[in-house]
Specification:
2 domains, Rossmann fold, 7-stranded mixed sheet, 14 helices, alpha/beta
Length: 388
């Protein structure tokens, strides 16, 4: 990247201004991960994050609530940031309009010892969508020079930290909901920013019926809007099977994340969406389980806006499975077996909505160990599963 030079000798205090202009949980999770890598690369002693948008701030504040690497998470307008208190001001966002650039320059009044740089959020996506023209976008400060490998290594390699009281709450909540410690809990994520990311209704029913054949398995789902989801599942599965479903409603983001890290969880299955990035971050930050195994984290993805899943999941401890078409029908291919170049990656992709339950179950079974003495409990991913 052309632009500003690296900060020599490390940085005492730094503030990173984050603004996306849209509220997507996955983007905010990745932004926080990028900041963790930047802090190490630039040798920043104290890092403050200021999120401009109030909704984005609320999400970010909850994600970093127990993060040892983030000193503060603020929600101040540009005019109220005390720029002179920091040696480095890093503007992490995408701005395309000179009007925004000029307004920001007028509001910023850094001190003589303050270095100010811009860093395009998710530069790889800018290059994919806009080509070389992205460099003509109007940024408020010179672009910070960061070796490409620094931020590419951060793709999906999240850490979301929990407090002990949150872990204890999750265990207690699940027990009150009827999930005993010896039960095998599967978390099914069935929502995303775009319904094209989701399995079909018939496929979902088949996968749930497969899980529920094991009498020790129960299913956790999130019902954030309480808009009829539970009734739809009752109709789909029947009363007997529905009784083994547990729904989290109105618990809030931090507690919903705590449920993902509960010891009863044996598998988390979901689409390429923000809560799956959170699941990966929760389990990456947890201490190694005493039992010697970890939940199986499976992300399914397919054709969606021409994205390359290597850009999202290459560093993750979740296993990403990609939907491709073949003569015998759609199938899920492990990310590590997919081409890296985007033009090759997208060739032959199909929508996850075309997947059958049989195709999804086959892929799950290929990654699940069954031990009759221990009764199926799932296994953790190979640490090198994405060829990091």
């Amino acid at each position: 990247m052309t632009g500003g030079k690296l900060i020599p000798g490390g940085v005492g205090r730094a503030i990173v201004i984050v603004e996306f202009g849209h509220t997507r949980l996955g983007d905010i999770v990745q932004a926080i991960t990028d900041l963790r890598y930047l802090r190490e690369h630039l040798r920043i002693e104290s890092l403050t994050v200021n999120v401009i948008d109030p909704t984005e701030f609320r999400l970010a504040a909850e994600l970093v609530a127990a993060d040892p690497l983030i000193g503060e998470c603020l929600n101040l307008p540009y005019s109220r940031i005390r720029y002179r208190d920091y040696q480095l001001v890093l503007h992490y966002t995408v701005f395309k309009h000179c009007a925004v650039k000029d307004a920001l320059r007028l509001e910023c009044a850094p001190g003589d010892d303050t270095a100010c740089y811009s860093l395009p959020a998710m530069r790889w996506d800018l290059e994919r969508v806009h080509g070389e023209s992205w460099q003509e976008f109007a940024y408020p400060f010179p672009l910070l020079a960061v070796p490409a490998g620094v931020l590419m290594d951060s793709r999906g390699n999240h850490r979301i930290y929990q407090r002990e009281d949150e872990r204890a709450w999750a265990v207690g909540w699940l027990e009150q909901a009827g999930v005993a410690r010896e039960d095998r809990l599967v978390v099914l994520i069935d929502e995303a920013s775009d319904t094209d990311k989701l399995l079909s209704r018939n496929c979902t029913r088949g996968v749930l019926e497969h899980f529920l054949r094991n009498e020790r398995v129960k299913i956790l789902l999130y019902d954030l809007r309480e808009d009829g989801k539970q009734e739809a599942y009752r109709e789909m599965l029947g009363a007997e099977s529905f009784a083994r479903l547990v729904f989290s409603t109105r618990n809030g983001l931090r507690r919903d994340l705590a449920l993902l890290g509960a010891p009863q969880v044996r598998m988390i299955l979901g689409p390429d969406t923000g809560i799956m990035h959170c699941a990966a971050g929760i389990h990456a930050a947890l201490p190694a389980p005493a039992a010697g195994w970890a939940p199986l984290l499976l992300v399914y993805a397919g054709r969606w806006l021409g994205f390359n899943m290597w850009d999202f999941w290459s560093g993750s401890n979740a296993q990403c499975l990609v939907a491709y078409a073949k003569d015998s029908g759609p199938f899920l291919r492990p990310l590590r077996e997919c081409p890296r170049r985007t033009e090759d990656f997208v060739r032959g992709l199909c929508s996850v909505g075309e997947l059958t339950a049989a195709a999804v179950i086959e892929s799950i079974e290929a990654r699940t160990k069954y031990d009759r003495r221990r009764e199926w409990q799932g296994v953790g991913p190979d640490p090198g599963s994405q060829d990091r």
